[in-house]
Design a protein that fits this description.
The chain has helices at residues 15-20, 32-37, 43-64, 83-106, 122-134, 151-168, 230-241; strands spanning 24-28, 68-75, 110-114, 142-149, 195-198, 217-220. The protein is an alpha/beta fold. Bound molecules: farnesyl diphosphate.
Length: 252
């Protein structure tokens, strides 16, 4: 660990290391259920512990040079869980937004949500809108929460809108290229993720940011999400700084 006086005690990262770290980190927060089960507690106990980690991770982003943080909170597939777990998660999201709104706004965090809002209940959607509005002027950390999000669903919804523009005549089929589709994605205002982290030992991406992660670096770590710390994020960001990213080109 560097002994530099500018090293952050919480993350173990110096200012110089923060500059070479990832600008956009995306996280698949997995392992809440197993964490709770290991303690003989219901799965929702793990989700509540996971929500506390979200707070810690968001607050350490500025020290790490992470300008964009995108977290996978609920997938289009998560509706297959029991009704108790789904409604418990929905009420956790409502509580999180109500409780954190002021602190996020005060810490200069800009919050956005991605995913399909149509299946979410009106009260939750209203809170999401409020939080987006309340933090719209902030320019510190850009926190994006993926809620009822699936990468394939996002591409399908984007394609539908793109096809509508072609049908209306505002877009010509021959003008559709690699730059066109991202403009229709939920993430159209965000840069692509540089680093995607999945906790809990599973090595799969589970329909998360499929288009956007084409050139991301991946970290699959064993830690269960409720045990994930700012220090561990710092270690992964420093490791990212040492990687040679060529984007398909040859090293010079
Ligand atoms: C996956 O763990 C986690 C989820 C489906 C929910 C993620 C939600 C949180 C971390 C809660 C807080 C989020 C916000 C934005 C307040 P799992 O339940 O699949 O774990 P398992 O694989 O061990 O069963």
């Amino acid at each position: 660990m560097p002994s530099d006086s500018n090293t952050c005690a919480e993350t173990g990262t110096s200012e110089a290391q923060a500059l070479s770290g990832p600008r956009h980190v995306a996280i698949i927060m997995d392992g809440n259920g197993r964490w709770a089960q290991a303690r003989g507690r219901p799965r929702l106990f793990g989700h509540h512990a996971g929500a506390r980690r979200v707070r810690e991770v968001v607050s350490c982003c500025p020290q790490l040079g992470v300008k964009y943080l995108t977290i996978f909170a609920f997938s289009t597939e998560n509706w297959k869980r029991t009704q108790v777990e789904v409604s418990g998660l929905m009420s956790l999201f409502r509580r999180y937004i109500s409780k954190e709104m002021k602190a996020l706004a005060a810490r200069n965090v800009r919050v956005r949500f991605i995913g399909d809002r149509l299946r979410l209940d009106d009260k939750l959607v209203q809170l999401m809108d409020d939080l987006e509005l309340e933090t719209a002027q902030n320019d510190g950390t850009h926190l994006t929460i993926a809620l009822n999000y699936g990468g394939r669903d996002e591409v399908a919804r984007a394609t539908r809108r793109l096809a509508q523009d072609v049908a209306d005549g505002s877009l010509l089929p021959q003008d559709v290229d690699e730059e066109t589709l991202p403009r229709y994605l939920d993430t159209h205002v965000l840069p692509d993720p540089d680093l995607v982290i999945r906790t809990s030992g599973e090595a799969r991406i589970s329909n998360f940011l499929l288009w956007q992660s084409a050139y991301a670096e991946y970290e699959f770590i064993d830690t269960l999400w409720p045990d994930f710390t700012a220090e561990e994020l710092g270690r992964l960001c420093r490791r990212f700084g040492g990687r040679d990213r060529r984007f398909g080109a040859v090293a010079t």
